[in-house]
Amino acid sequence: MWKVEDFRREVKRRIDEARNAGAEYANIVSGDMYRELGGYPGSSHSMPLCCKAMYDYKKPIDITLEAPPKGKGATLKIR
Fold first, then answer.
1. pLDDT in tens, 45-65
2. Which of 25, 35, 53, 70 has the fewest CB atoms within 10 Å, i.e. the most exposed one?
């Protein structure tokens, strides 16, 4: 079973990876991240935790490029 901390670690890893590569930003898509971690799509219904982790890392200068109507879903994309 996934925990929000698992997703937070992955968000941080992706941000650090982009920073170390010299990128100006990282575009993180919840469905892509969860799929790469394993378990999505599946029956665990942990997408809300994945999205919470992304929102937890979101800073005022970050941009939500795409969000599902209720704010949490596989299409959430934050830069």
1. 799 999 999 999 999 999 999
2. 70
CA distance 68 to 38: 21
- The two structure tokens encoding residue 38: 């394993």
Q: How far apart are CA 62 and CA 38, in angstroms?
A: 26
Q: Are residues 13 and 67 in contact, defined by beta-carbon separation less than 8 angstroms?
A: no
- Per DSSP, helices labelled H in the chain are 4-20, 30-37, 47-57
For the stretch 5-32, pLDDT in tens is: 999 999 999 999 999 999 999 999 999 9
Predicted TM-score (pTM) of this structure = 0.91
Residue type, 73: G
